[in-house]
Design a protein that fits this description.
The chain is globular, with a radius of gyration of 23 Å. The strands form three sheets. Strands 4, 5, 6, 7, 8, 9, 10 and 13 form an eight-stranded mixed sheet that branches. It has a three-stranded antiparallel sheet with strand order 3-12-11. Strands 1-2 form a two-stranded antiparallel ribbon. It is of the alpha+beta class and 280 residues long. The protein has one domain: Alpha-Beta Complex (phage-related protein like fold). It is built from six helices and 13 strands. The chain is 28% helix and 31% strand. Helix 1 crosses helix 3.
């Protein structure tokens, strides 16, 4: 078969495209720094400190201050890989597209790894007290009355933190919570087919709603709970790239093989733009 896999750019482009279209937690994050990463490096995220606003009194000297900036680092310290082979005999006896489908599954696996990492850092920030959360959100008890009240409280918390109505909001919930809130969220119609393709099931207020199976598990001191989230697209920074994709013929087998290395990093850069919903 000699899979034509030695046209490595083809396989790299195929898998990268699949990574970009398989949406989930990582795709609701800030990709502004994606082009700045290299393997085993970190990205310096720069910001500025808002200057003080003073009252001007005619005839009095101005009070001048030095402009100040701020910075934080996005560590690119996560490395995941895949390495699979297809025996020549199996390839001949299989329907066409075997390797393409295997590469698709590899891409799905990489997306899940990235999502699980994002969920992990959110749990860490909640544990540290850096992210606000609902005091009680018993998903089993949500009703057409308590559900909207819970979500409106989440929006209010973010608006109080100066998030703008024009920001891009995402509401990420467990399958169970979705069944509870489905009656009062607005379904996406055929005019939003592109959003449906990206995994969104509806919208509430000005947030796109998605069902997530990789939300983090947090222990509140008594029991474990999944953490649903309402957040803006700027709350979490994510940067990742398919560092290497190689197609090769193993010397000790009659098979074709493909291996790939995915490097990424994520950081909660604006914790005030996330509100978590403990879903018991």
């Amino acid at each position: 078969m000699a899979i034509n896999n030695f046209q490595q750019t083809i396989w790299s482009k195929l898998i990268q495209t699949q990574l970009d279209t398989l949406t989930s937690l990582k795709d609701h994050s800030d990709y502004s720094f994606d082009g700045d990463i290299k393997m085993a490096e970190k990205v310096k995220i720069l910001g500025v400190v808002r200057p003080s606003i003073s009252t001007y009194i005619p005839g009095t000297p101005l009070s001048r201050e030095a402009g100040a900036d701020s910075s934080q680092f996005l560590e690119i310290d996560q490395f995941r890989y895949f390495d699979f082979e297809v025996d020549d005999v199996e390839a001949v006896q299989s329907v066409p597209g075997l390797i393409e489908n295997l590469s698709l599954e590899a891409s799905k696996g990489l997306v899940e790894e990235a999502d699980e990492y994002i969920a992990t850092i959110v749990v860490a920030e909640v544990t540290a007290g850096n992210i606000a959360k609902a005091t009680s959100a018993d998903v089993s008890g949500l009703t057409s009355t308590t559900g909207p009240a819970l979500l409106e409280g989440a929006f209010q918390a973010l608006y109080d933190n100066n998030c703008k109505v024009s920001d891009n909001f995402f509401l990420e919930v467990t399958p169970e919570m979705y069944t509870k809130i489905r009656s009062f969220i607005v379904s996406l119609d055929t005019n939003n087919s592109e959003l449906i393709k990206k995994g969104f099931v509806g919208h509430y207020n000005n947030a796109l709603v998605s069902i997530e199976n990789k939300l983090g598990t947090w222990h509140d001191g008594t029991r474990n709970t999944k953490l649903g989230m309402l957040r803006t697209s700027k709350a979490i920074a994510f940067a990742g790239q398919l560092e290497k994709v190689e197609a090769y013929r193993p010397q000790d087998a009659f098979s074709d093989a493909i291996k790939g290395l995915y490097v990424f990093g994520a950081k909660v850069v604006r914790p005030e733009q996330i509100y978590v919903l403990p879903l018991y």
